């Protein structure tokens, strides 16, 4: 076929002048037509038009040969070719050899390779015998290779699965098949190159092959869309699977994709529906299905061709519901936590085999499948033949039941048919709210702690220490959860690592480390102060603060007592006995004689002088009022107090004061004396007081107050001196 371009219009009239606008005509002529006079009749009408319009007319003809193509079929097919349909595939041998790619954890091996190369070059240049040295280095290299590839972490295995030189699906298919024909199209107007399908034979038996196809270089990866199929690709796979089911061909699928293509166009064309159709259809196919995970298998995009009777994985393959990078970005707000996410997700073949997701692991050569692609393909071929030998013995009913039970038994233990199912339980997924203690529980726990601390004999009481240790452990767990949730755990670990590497870890922080620590602290306080966030942590911090203050008061009180006891002379102790005697008489209702009153006054003066000598300022003396209550009245007080607490909790829940109380606590942590704290306190008190005044509690309180006044008895004990740092 030959092309002629005709351009008509106003040609130049000298001096570059042009008038009017031109138009272009492109016509295709057969070679026979071109052999005729091109200046003849075909242009007669055009010339007549030019004469009528009194315009000049010129024709420019460009002859261009058509590009010779070899797809979908070449111009000259060799009838003697045994495989005449190989031209139907885009997959051709690469003209340039792939460049070697070194992964980050393989750098020690590269250093050894360089040493071996240097020694070999030295032997060639000098002519000396370095055989022993080369052999020693090669043994060292082999040992290092074994040690490295036998202790790979999950993220390292994932990097191997993503290696640019790793053999693709078509590489494996061409290595294991005797004959292979690729089939194209979804019969809806599109052929997705990200999924390849076709029919091939192994040892005289025909199989249908379906797989995700990655590119071997940048150009191929763009053409294959990095093995991320669109709905057309899944519908093409579905068409070929139905074809296999109709003709009775066993199906072998290869999985190697980061996931289905998630662009807007794919969603508009029904990406989810296409995957769902594949999942449903595969469970009803009446032919054996084996799936091989050769690289990475990402989410539903991989599962859409992986609902098989047997799922086999290469040693360094990975299968996941979300990539470690995406998981780390969601949980830890940073893709830098991908190694940790890969470990938690259990994406490796070994983990899948333990969980009964994978039915077998196909070994790879040391260095990964790209180190020896042909050897890897042969292991895949052996696994396919072995699996098909087992599955072809089953009839249709057994085959379908085998496939169903495989997915029912996934996981440790799996689901056993006929076993009882646990009843449905409602679960609150908001862990922070579930684990947050109630206000009444916190108050009672604090009261218990106060009582334990005040009744303890000395500051180092074992019971107090045990309770304090438990509070610190709970707080440590809450802090760790908060750091992870806030995305600060990586920064803290990095800071700890820098501290351990510091030459003087016991000394003060350097300026750089101090700035990092301050930045983490500020960000932590900022996120902690948000209303309604991290309630459990806030409660535990508040509780620990109160306990520490009580312990400090207890310690200072004990210290003060010991100092005063050291300064007490025998005379002072005798005078204290006088004070005690006076107190006992007053409690019995007896009157004091004049001599005893004088002794009491003298003892008070001496005792005040002792306090002044201990640098304690006397503030005032006071009377202690002691009310003796009957057991029945005490029971009434406890009951009313309990009702008041319950009513307050009810008001808080009904009026929606929880968020305001959280805001008050957050503001109090920042500055307890701020105007905002006072305003919030007043608002909360006003709401609670208004609600309580309208309840029956007001009447109960009035009745209780009357009973207290009628049964109260006052007993005054002199000699209680108040000092500026405690009560004596």
TrEMBL record:
The keyword Acetylation does not apply. PROSITE patterns: COA_CT_CTER. Gene3D superfamilies: 2-enoyl-CoA Hydratase, Chain A, domain 1. The keyword Nucleotide-binding applies. Residues 593-714 form a coiled coil. Its EC number is 2.1.3.15. Residues 136-390 form the CoA carboxyltransferase C-terminal domain. It holds the Pfam family ACCA. Keywords: ATP-binding, Coiled coil, Fatty acid biosynthesis, Fatty acid metabolism, Lipid biosynthesis, Lipid metabolism, Nucleotide-binding. Transmembrane segments: none annotated. HAMAP family: AcetylCoA_CT_alpha. This is acetyl-CoA carboxytransferase. The lineage of its organism: Eukaryota, Viridiplantae, Streptophyta, Embryophyta, Tracheophyta.
